[in-house]
C-alpha cells in the first residue's frame, strides 16, 4: 500500500471531514477447527486456514474486516483507525497492511507502514490489542511483511534504508528484523546486501519454501527513479542467515513468490517499472517465471511470455488455485484501460480472462485456498467488493461478489491469512 497526499488525517480526519465517526468494534470471532488440507503451504501438509483478514482503506483511514475463507464477513469492523480501541496506544494510520502468510500463533497482526512503523498484535477471539512494537528505530523503516518463524520469533522485512544510520540500535534498515514475539522486542537483524551503489535492497514480501523464508527484494533507488532486476533470497531461521539468492534476470519489480499446493512448484510475477509520463509498463520486462521448488535454490523452469503476449505489466501478486492454475492480474494503462484478472496455466501459459475493471490500480489483495474450499478472492476497490471464484472441474467459476466492510464502507485493498 502507498500513502496518498492530501485529505484528512487518519485518526481525526473523519470528524474533520464532517463524516460521522465509525461505531466501535464489531468484535472478535470464533472459528471452527480447520479441516486437513489436501495440499501444502510449502512447509508440508497443514490444516486449512481459519479465515482471512481484509484491509479496507481510502489511504487516509483504515478498517480491518475478518471473513471466512470464501470472503463472507464475520466481523465487519474488527478494528479501525477512527474508533477508540483499548490498548491501541499507537493509533492506526491510513497505510496499514497484513501478512499473507497466516501467523501460526493465531494472532491477527497489523503492519502500520510508512509514517508510523509499528506492529500491532491482536487477539482474534475478542479483538483485544495484545501488544504494539515500534520498528522505526529512528527512521522511516516502512515494514512490509511479517512471518512467524517459530513460537518465539518473527521476521519483519523493512523496505526502507536509513540514510544516516548509527544513531541507535538496529537503525540501518534495508533488512529483515528479528523480533521476539513474546516480549515483544527487537532482538536482531539480517542485513541484505546490494552490490549496485545506486540501489537499495528494499526487502518486501515474504513466504515459505520448505524450511526457508523467501524474501523478495524491490531493489529501488532512494528516489524510485531506478530499479534493478528482480531478486529473491532464501533465509534460514535456524541460522538467521541468507542461504541462497535467485536473480530474475531481465525482469523488474517482482512480487511475492507463490508456492503450489504440493510445494513442488513456485512462481513469481514481475511488473516492470511504470513510465510516469505515459502511465504504461514495459511488457518486455514483465512476465511470470516458473521454478522447480524441490531444488535449493529454486531452479527456473520456464517463462510464460505473458507481458509481451498481453501487452501489459503483470501485477506482482500471484496465487495458485490448484497445482497448475495461477490467478494473475495486469495493470491498466497498456492494452486495457483498467486492471484485468486472469487464470494462467503454469505449464502451458494458456490464459483465460476472469474479469476486468474500468480503471487502473483498483485490484489488490488476492487469496486462494486450494484444498480448503477451493475459493479465490480478490479485492476490488472500484466495486467496493470482493470478487470471488470457486474451482469446479479444474476451472474457476464466478461466485457472487461480496461487500465485506458493511460498517465503515471503505473499499477492500489487501487480504491476509488467519490461523
Overview features:
disordered N terminus; Methylamine Dehydrogenase, Chain H; globular; 4-stranded antiparallel β-sheet; mainly beta; 419 residues
Task: Give a description of the structure.
This protein has a four-stranded antiparallel β-sheet, with no helix packed on it. The protein has helices spanning 13-16, 306-310, and strands at 36-40, 45-47, 51-57, 62-67, 73-80, 96-97, 108-112, 118-123, 128-134, 143-148, 153-161, 173-180, 185-191, 203-209, 212-217, 229-236, 241-252, 258-259, 265-270, 287-292, 299-303, 319-320, 325-330, 340-345, 351-356, 363-368, 375-380, 385-392, 395-402, 412-418. The relative contact order is 0.14. The two termini are 23 Å apart. The protein is built from two helices and 30 strands. The chain has a single domain (93-395), classed as Methylamine Dehydrogenase, Chain H, CATH 2.130.10. It has 419 residues and is mainly β. The protein is 2% helix and 44% strand.
Helix and strand topology:
Elements: H1 13-16, E1 36-40, E2 45-47, E3 51-57, E4 62-67, E5 73-80, E6 96-97, E7 108-112, E8 118-123, E9 128-134, E10 143-148, E11 153-161, E12 173-180, E13 185-191, E14 203-209, E15 212-217, E16 229-236, E17 241-252, E18 258-259, E19 265-270, E20 287-292, E21 299-303, H2 306-310, E22 319-320, E23 325-330, E24 340-345, E25 351-356, E26 363-368, E27 375-380, E28 385-392, E29 395-402, E30 412-418
Antiparallel strand pairs: 1-2, 3-4, 3-30, 4-5, 6-7, 7-8, 8-9, 10-11, 11-12, 12-13, 14-15, 15-16, 16-17, 18-19, 19-20, 20-21, 22-23, 23-24, 24-25, 26-27, 27-28, 28-29
Amino acid at each position: 500500500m502507498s500513502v496518498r497526499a492530501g485529505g484528512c488525517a487518519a485518526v481525526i480526519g473523519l470528524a474533520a471531514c464532517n463524516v460521522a465517526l465509525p461505531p466501535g468494534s464489531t468484535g472478535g470471532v470464533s472459528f471452527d477447527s480447520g479441516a486437513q488440507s489436501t495440499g501444502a503451504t510449502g512447509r508440508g501438509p497443514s490444516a486449512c486456514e481459519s479465515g482471512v483478514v481484509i484491509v479496507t482503506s481510502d489511504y487516509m483511514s483504515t478498517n480491518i474486516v475478518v471473513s471466512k475463507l470464501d470472503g463472507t464477513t464475520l466481523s465487519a469492523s474488527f478494528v479501525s483507525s477512527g474508533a477508540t480501541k483499548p490498548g491501541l496506544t499507537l493509533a492506526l494510520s491510513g497505510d496499514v497492511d497484513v501478512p499473507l502468510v497466516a501467523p501460526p500463533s493465531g494472532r491477527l497482526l497489523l503492519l502500520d507502514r510508512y509514517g508510523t512503523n509499528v506492529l500491532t498484535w491482536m487477539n482474534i477471539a475478542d479483538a483485544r490489542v495484545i501488544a504494539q512494537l515500534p520498528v522505526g528505530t529512528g527512521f522511516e523503516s516502512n515494514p512490509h511483511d511479517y512471518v512467524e518463524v517459530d513460537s518465539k520469533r518473527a521476521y519483519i522485512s523493512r523496505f526502507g534504508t536509513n540514510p544516516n544510520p548509527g544513531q541507535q540500535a538496529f537503525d540501518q534498515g534495508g533488512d529483515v528484523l528479528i523480533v521476539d514475539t513474546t516480549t515483544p522486542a527487537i532482538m536482531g537483524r539480517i542485513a541484505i546486501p546490494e552490490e549496485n551503489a545506486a540501489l537499495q535492497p528494499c526487502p518486501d514480501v515474504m513466504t515459505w519454501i520448505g524450511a526457508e523464508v523467501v524474501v523478495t527484494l524491490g531493489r529501488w533507488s532512494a528516489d524510485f527513479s531506478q530499479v534493478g532486476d528482480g531478486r529473491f533470497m532464501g533465509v534460514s531461521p535456524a541460522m538467521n542467515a541468507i542461504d541462497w539468492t535467485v536473480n530474475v534476470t531481465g525482469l523488474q519489480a517482482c512480487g511475492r513468490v507463490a508456492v503450489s499446493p504440493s510445494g513442488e512448484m513456485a512462481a513469481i510475477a514481475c511488473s516492470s517499472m511504470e513510465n510516469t509520463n505515459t502511465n504504461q509498463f514495459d511488457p518486455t520486462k514483465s512476465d511470470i517465471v516458473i521454478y522447480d521448488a524441490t531444488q535449493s535454490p529454486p531452479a527456473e523452469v520456464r517463462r510464460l511470455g505473458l507481458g509481451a503476449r498481453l501487452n501489459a505489466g503483470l501485477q506482482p501478486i500471484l496465487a495458485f488455485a490448484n497445482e497448475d492454475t495461477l490467478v494473475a492480474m495486469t495493470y491498466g494503462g497498456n492494452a486495457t484501460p483498467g486492471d484485468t484478472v486472469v487464470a494462467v496455466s503454469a505449464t502451458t501459459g494458456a490464459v483465460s480472462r476472469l474479469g476486468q475493471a474500468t480503471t487502473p490500480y483498483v485490484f489488490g489483495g488476492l487469496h486462494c485456498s486450494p484444498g480448503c474450499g477451493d475459493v479465490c478472492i480478490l479485492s476490488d476497490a472500484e466495486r467496493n467488493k470482493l470478487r470471488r471464484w470457486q474451482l469446479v472441474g479444474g476451472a474457476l467459476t464466478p461466485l457472487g461478489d461480496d461487500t465485506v466492510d458493511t460498517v465503515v464502507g471503505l473499499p477492500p485493498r489487501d487480504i491476509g491469512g488467519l490461523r
